[in-house]
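Comment thread on ticket #2218

A.B. wrote:
> Attaching the input chain for the structure job we discussed in standup.
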Amino acid sequence: MKRFLFLLSGGLFFLAACVHDPFAVIIDDTGGGTLPIDTGGTGGIDTTFYTGIPCDPDTVYFQNDILPILVSNCAIEGCHDVASHEEGIILSTYDYVMSTGTVHAGHPNSSEMYEKITDFGDDDLMPPPPAPPLSSDEIALIYTWIDQGALDNYCSDCDTSSVTFSETVWPIVDAYCTGCHDATLPSAGLSLLNYDDVAFVAENGSLMSSLNGSDGYVLMPSGSSALPDCLIDLIQTWVDDGYPDN
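C.D. wrote:
> Ran it. Output below, let me know if you need it in another format.
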């Protein structure tokens, strides 16, 4: 189960046509381990004080497991990002998912979000063709997250002592970036498919500038929450070490 966050360098998300029926929302906010919500009107999450929350292998975490799936497959241009908001649905942050999405906390089989990603052979399957459907592992994560209460939860052991590209940095890129920066329709003409691609943006500074929203770069992922400080530290450690291929 992936436990890493977030996205990379600047650019737009690739296009995918989406059609949905209007959604009803039932929110159950019980349970522990939830994230603090920024009430300043941005719809984002305050990520300023995360110093490490141990991960429970039996728990699915929204920020670690679910949001990467949504950002790479749903919250994209022409579909469910903030700008496009097809059928009024935005899936780029927890607040948007729960206020405009299709989640009935504790009841995945009656949640239209889950129904849409499992309607194989149906014209309403999401993501729509030509995008590939979600994998069985991704579908299982979404089912379990809803079943466990659809919480806005997060975990990170935040150990920067053994950061590697293969075990730390690449899972971030794979989960959050390749959906937009792929080989077919790479956003901003930038593909992020292997070590060389990621090392390139690390070397020229655009990787960390995008994660921090600094030096004139738009904060990534576009329209979603910023990476928690702990996870930015993990990537920064790799960059400071000379972005090794390890």
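A.B. wrote:
> Thanks. Noting for the ticket: The CA atoms of residues 12 and 222 lie 8 Å apart.
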